[in-house]
Amino acid sequence: MEIYDEVPSTQDAARECLSHPPFLVVASCQSKGKGRLGRVWESPRGGLYFTLVIEALSQLWAIPLVSAYTVWKALSSKVVNLRLKWPNDVYADGGKLAGIIVETWGGRLGIGVGVNVNQRAFRGELVAKATSLSMIVGQEFNLEGLLEDIVSGIIKSMEKFREFGFAHFHPEVQRVLLSSKQPVKFSNEGKNYTGKLLDMDSSGSALVQTSDGRLFKLPAQHLLESP
Ligand code: BTN
Question: What is the pLDDT of residues 114-168, one digit of tens each?
Fold first, then answer.
């Protein structure tokens, strides 16, 4: 495990690290936290920021979904009423609580997790979009304990995943996603859409309906990023 006070991004630090997987890179804050699709992940002190590096496995496309489900499960034991949003975000009533990015680096995978934990306020556009565990329950959380819970959960999920594949997770991930009722944002042919999740099939693809009744099938293959 590598522990930093501050790095630009644990994703980049992990990619450059020569250790043999599995290993973990953790930072107290990040100056250039990476979100999905080229977005920035605001990473002040008080949040949890880590990258778990594992060896690549088959059905790579499912790793973001399974990782997000596992983070959702770990956080659901701390606060109630959390929702999972396809493909890989965790929401609470006040907004986004955690985000997951999965990058492929040759034969290795970097599973990056950011959780808003002890932040008491957000800046700019995040004021309306983000929340933290501490803002929800009004108390501070132990970051090390939370790290241990989430990382051990992901490692267990990956062991199950290696053995049984996505089939093992599909019914439960599907149930949680559908009961979460979170709108899905996506773009198609240069246009941005928001739609209702109708289903997620055994290949992780989302069936989404927009408000004008159009149906879109969004493949899970698109969820992996490479820097
Ligand atoms: C998203 O919702 O867009 C994904 C956010 C992922 C953020 C985490 S924080 C730890 C790791 N290092 C990064 O630079 N990004 C991920």
Answer: 999 999 999 888 988 999 999 999 999 999 999 999 999 999 999 999 999 999 9
Q: Is 10 in the pocket of ligand 1 (CB under 6 A)?
A: yes
For the chain, the straight-line distance linking the first and the last C-alpha, in angstroms and rounded, comes to 22
CB 55 within 8 A of CB 106: no
**pTM greater than 0.90 (yes/no):** yes
Atom of ligand 1 nearest to the CA of 47: 9
Q: Is the CB of 8 under 6 A from ligand 1?
A: no
User: What H or E segment, with its residue span, contains residue 75?
Assistant: helix 63-76
The position carrying tokens 């034969």 is: 107
Alpha-carbon gap, residue 223 to 221, rounded angstroms:
5
Exposure of 82 by Cβ count < 10 A (0-12 exposed, 13-18 middle, 19+ buried)?
A: buried
